[in-house]
Design a protein that fits this description.
The structure is a homodimer of 182-residue chains.
Chain A: E1 6-14, H1 22-25, H2 35-41, H3 50-53, E2 59-62, H4 74-81, E3 86-89, H5 94-102, E4 107-109, H6 113-116, E5 122-126, E6 131-134, E7 139-142, H7 148-156, H8 159-181
Parallel strand pairs in A: 1-2, 2-3, 3-4
Antiparallel strand pairs in A: 1-5, 5-6, 6-7
Protein name (chains A, B): 3-isopropylmalate dehydratase
Keywords (chains A, B): Lyase
GO molecular function (chains A, B): lyase activity
Amino acid sequence: MALNPLRGRVAYIFDEVNFDVDQIVGVKNIKITDVEELAKLAMQPYDPDFAAKVKPGDLLVGAGNFGYGHPHYPPMKAMRHLGITGVIAESFSPGYWRGEISMGFPQVSCPGILGFVQRWDELEVDWSTHTIRNVTQGTEIAFEPPPQSDAEMIEAGGLVPYLKRQATEQRQQKGSEHVQGA
Amino acid sequence: MALNPLRGRVAYIFDEVNFDVDQIVGVKNIKITDVEELAKLAMQPYDPDFAAKVKPGDLLVGAGNFGYGHPHYPPMKAMRHLGITGVIAESFSPGYWRGEISMGFPQVSCPGILGFVQRWDELEVDWSTHTIRNVTQGTEIAFEPPPQSDAEMIEAGGLVPYLKRQATEQRQQKGSEHVQGA
């Protein structure tokens, strides 16, 4: 298993503990399914020019228990559409974590991240050494490796491709057992 | 699905953020596999009389990112042996959460829990209403429902019985499809 490193700028820092991601698109817009429309609404309360500033590869940073509340997919669908490739937070809400990992969206649990970055710092997340390098500041911080199955799910691109891959591997294993047994 | 409510006293409050559960038995004892021995070592640095005070059903309370560090099973095996039936924390480390849920050990993510309890308060965790009642103080606090699959894993008693149950259900479904198709 080899997860691709994440490389990008800190596009935004959500410094609120127990941050509910619904607020990114606005609670009243949470039923919208069109991702273009969601992307237009995203971040309006925080930075109306966000869409113009963000670049593909950029990352979000969060505080403790990031993703608290009912886990809804539209906010991060909008963020991915805008180019965001992952979230690094002090800690995560279990429901949010599970949901976004099952979408194959990288999440990094890193106590101390809030004191480690400023907005627009350039970061590199190295999964093999479990370190985040702040390229702008020339510093490093360790992070918690995700559970193995979560890392595999991120690498596969989400729950559905992950399960398909597992099924294929099982079939191949059975096939080779059959050959051995013949 | 109906998870049994948790009912017990707050046997200990770990108020340290990023608490590494290895400290419960001591890092140097983490390779011990005998649960009786682990139970004797447990909580020595925090409360040497813990084993005499704890009662079956009691709960542990933790701070933010509870379970940070390499997820090892011995500390909570020792705690379960002493009668502990679950952990309520401000938030959890993803690796710890995944590991203990796969053991069928109830974990409750509840921002605000530290300010809501004192040691030895009697609590009731109601999964159906997502509330924790502090029987001693006569107060209530809402908690985040766990992801559905995690709730099912707790109810089944862990990952292995959960997968067995799913396999049985799939076989039964196939059987009934076969009958319908006949």
